[in-house]
C-alpha cells in the first residue's frame, strides 16, 4: 500500500471515515455470529468478516465483498444490539454491500436477492410508493423465477391484499430527483 | 388526540388489515389520525441495502412533508417504516454535514423535530382507556411477537427492552388476553427474504411459531407486516419445513384490541388472513 504517512484506502478506513465505525473495537468475542439467525447458512460469518476487515488489507476486503454471507444478512440488528463493544455490525454489512455492488463483486448466488432489491426500488422510483404486483413481476423477470408463488397471488387477491393499480404520488418528480442524485440512474 | 399517520406501502396492499384495524381502533379510542400529505415509500428493506443516501433521503422527504403539514408526531404502524424513519432521522441529527447533503437531495431541510412513534408506543398512551372500554375480553393465551425492528438497534430506536420487551404484553393483558413468557419474542422471521429465500423464511418463522406453540399460545400477536405475512402467508412452507401442521393464527395487536373493544371483525380485516383467525367470541 501507499506511504505510511497516508491512511490506506481500505474498507476499514472508509468505515471509520463515513460511518464513524471503528473496527479495532472488535475483540472477536463472536457474539454477533452466535446470535445471527442466518450464520449457519453463511460462507463468511459476521465475526469472521469483522476480523478480515480489521486487517486493513485490500485483498481481504475483496474476500468479504465477494462473499455470499453479506447478502444473507437480514439486517435484524441482533449483532449490533449484542456487541459488547457497540460496533454497528449491521451498518458495516450495509456498507460492504454497497461497495460490493459498485465493485461488481456481488456473489453469483446472491443474484436473486440483489434483483429483488433493485426491483423494489425501481417500483418506488416510478410511482413513489411500492407497487407490490409490479415488484413481483419485475423480480420474476429479473430472476427468471416465473412460476414461483403462482398459487399465492390468487389467494391474496381474493382477500383484497393485491390492489391491481399502483398508487401514484404527486411528488413523482421529487422522487425522480432523489433517485437521480443517489442511485444515479434517474430515468 | 390528533396525530400524524404514515401508513406505508404494505398497509395499502398485502397488509391492509393492519391499516384497517389501526384506523378502527384509533377511531374507537378518539384518536384522530391525519395522513402525512403525499407520502412516499420509506425505502423499507431495500434502499439501505443499495445506497446509504437513498436510504436517508426517502424518509427525509416523508418527515419534511409531515413537518410542513404541522404534524409534531407521526404514527408509523409498520415496524419497518418506523425503524427506517427513526434510523434516518438519527443519522441526520448526528451528522450535520450528511444532513446538509440530504437536504440538497430532497430540497427540504431535515425535519428533526417530528417525533416518529410506533403502534405500541401510541397504544401504550391509551392503555387505561383501552382497559376501561373492553367489552369482550380477548381471553386467549397469546405469544406477543415483537420481531426485530421495533426494538433494535436500541441505540437508535430506544424503545422497550431489546431482548425481552413488555409493551405488547401489557396491551394484550389490558385487552383481557393472557400473555405468555416465551423464547422467541425478538428472533427474526426472515424479513424481506419472503420472496427470494423462502427456505430461510420457512426455517426462521418455523422456529418462532414452534416456540409459541410449545409455550402454550393459542394465538401469536404481532405489530409488523413482515412478521405477519411471513408467519401467516408462508404457513404452507413453514409446515412443510417443520413436517407438521401448525394452525395457530397470527393477529395484529390492533385486531386483538379491536375484538376486545367489540369492533366488527370485518372492519378489523380478520377475514383477510390465510390462517383463519377466528374471533374470540365464546
From TrEMBL, chain A:
The keyword Oxidoreductase applies. It comes from Mesoterricola sediminis. Keywords: 4Fe-4S, Iron, Iron-sulfur, Metal-binding, Oxidoreductase. The keyword Iron-sulfur applies. It comes from the Bacteria. PANTHER family: IRON-SULFUR-BINDING OXIDOREDUCTASE FADF-RELATED, IRON-SULFUR-BINDING OXIDOREDUCTASE FADF-RELATED-RELATED. This is Heterodisulfide reductase subunit C. InterPro entries: 4Fe4S_Fe-S-bd, 4Fe4S_Fe_S_CS, HdrC_iron-sulfur_subunit, Helical_ferredxn. GO terms for cellular component: plasma membrane. Residues 17-47 form the 4Fe-4S ferredoxin-type domain. GO terms for molecular function: 4 iron, 4 sulfur cluster binding; metal ion binding; oxidoreductase activity.
TrEMBL record, chain B:
GO terms for molecular function: oxidoreductase activity. Gene3D superfamilies: 1.20.1050.140, 3.40.50.11810. Residues 4-85, 142-232 form the Cysteine-rich domain. InterPro entries: Cys_rich_dom, HdrB/HdrD_reductase. It comes from the Bacteria. Keywords: Oxidoreductase. This is Heterodisulfide reductase subunit B. The lineage of its organism: Bacteria, Pseudomonadati, Acidobacteriota, Holophagae, Holophagales. The gene is hdrB.
Amino acid at each position: 500500500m501507499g506511504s505510511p504517512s497516508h491512511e490506506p484506502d481500505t474498507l476499514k478506513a472508509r468505515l471509520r471515515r463515513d460511518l464513524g465505525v471503528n473496527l479495532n473495537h472488535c475483540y472477536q468475542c463472536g457474539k454477533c455470529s452466535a446470535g445471527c439467525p442466518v450464520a449457519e447458512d453463511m460462507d463468511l460469518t459476521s465475526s469472521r468478516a469483522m476480523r478480515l476487515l480489521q486487517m486493513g488489507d485490500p485483498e481481504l476486503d475483496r474476500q468479504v465483498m465477494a462473499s455470499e454471507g453479506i447478502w444473507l444478512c437480514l439486517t435484524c440488528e441482533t449483532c449490533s444490539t449484542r456487541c459488547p463493544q457497540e460496533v454497528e455490525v449491521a451498518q458495516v454489512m450495509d456498507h460492504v454491500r454497497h461497495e460490493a455492488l459498485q465493485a461488481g463483486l456481488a456473489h453469483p448466488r446472491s443474484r436473486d436477492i440483489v434483483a429483488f432489491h433493485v426491483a423494489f426500488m425501481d417500483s418506488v422510483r416510478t410511482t413513489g410508493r411500492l407497487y407490490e404486483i409490479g415488484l413481483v413481476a419485475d423480480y420474476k423477470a429479473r430472476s427468471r423465477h416465473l412460476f414461483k408463488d403462482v398459487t399465492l397471488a390468487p389467494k391474496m387477491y381474493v382477500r383484497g391484499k393485491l390492489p391491481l393499480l399502483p398508487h401514484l404520488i404527486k411528488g413523482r418528480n421529487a422522487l425522480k430527483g432523489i433517485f437521480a442524485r443517489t442511485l444515479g440512474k434517474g430515468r | 388526540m390528533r396525530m400524524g399517520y404514515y401508513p406505508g406501502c404494505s398497509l395499502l396492499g398485502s397488509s391492509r388489515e393492519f391499516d384497517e384495524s389501526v384506523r378502527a381502533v384509533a377511531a374507537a379510542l378518539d384518536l384522530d389520525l391525519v395522513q402525512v400529505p403525499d407520502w412516499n415509500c420509506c425505502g423499507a428493506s431495500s434502499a439501505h441495502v443499495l445506497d446509504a443516501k437513498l436510504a436517508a433521503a426517502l424518509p427525509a422527504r416523508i418527515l419534511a412533508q409531515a413537518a410542513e403539514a404541522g404534524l409534531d408526531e407521526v404514527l408509523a404502524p409498520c415496524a419497518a417504516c418506523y425503524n427506517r424513519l427513526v434510523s434516518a432521522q438519527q443519522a441526520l441529527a448526528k451528522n450535520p454535514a450528511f444532513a446538509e447533503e440530504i437536504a440538497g437531495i430532497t430540497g427540504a431541510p431535515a425535519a428533526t423535530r417530528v417525533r416518529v412513534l410506533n403502534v405500541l408506543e401510541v397504544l401504550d398512551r391509551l392503555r387505561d382507556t383501552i382497559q376501561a372500554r373492553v367489552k369482550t375480553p380477548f381471553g386467549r393465551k397469546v405469544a406477543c411477537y415483537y420481531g426485530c425492528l421495533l426494538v433494535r438497534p436500541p441505540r437508535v430506536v430506544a424503545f422497550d427492552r431489546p431482548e425481552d420487551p413488555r409493551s405488547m404484553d401489557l396491551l394484550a393483558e389490558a385487552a383481557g388476553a393472557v400473555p405468555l413468557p416465551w423464547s422467541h419474542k425478538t428472533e427474526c422471521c426472515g424479513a424481506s427474504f419472503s420472496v427470494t429465500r423462502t427456505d430461510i423464511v420457512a426455517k426462521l418463522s418455523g422456529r418462532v411459531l414452534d416456540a409459541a406453540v410449545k409455550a402454550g399460545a393459542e394465538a401469536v400477536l404481532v405489530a409488523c407486516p413482515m412478521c405477519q405475512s411471513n408467519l401467516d402467508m408462508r404457513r404452507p412452507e413453514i409446515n412443510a419445513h417443520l413436517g407438521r401442521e401448525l394452525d395457530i393464527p397470527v393477529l395484529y395487536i390492533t385486531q386483538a384490541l379491536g375484538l376486545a373493544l367489540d369492533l366488527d371483525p370485518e372492519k378489523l380485516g380478520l377475514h383477510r388472513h390465510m390462517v383463519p383467525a377466528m374471533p374470540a367470541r365464546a
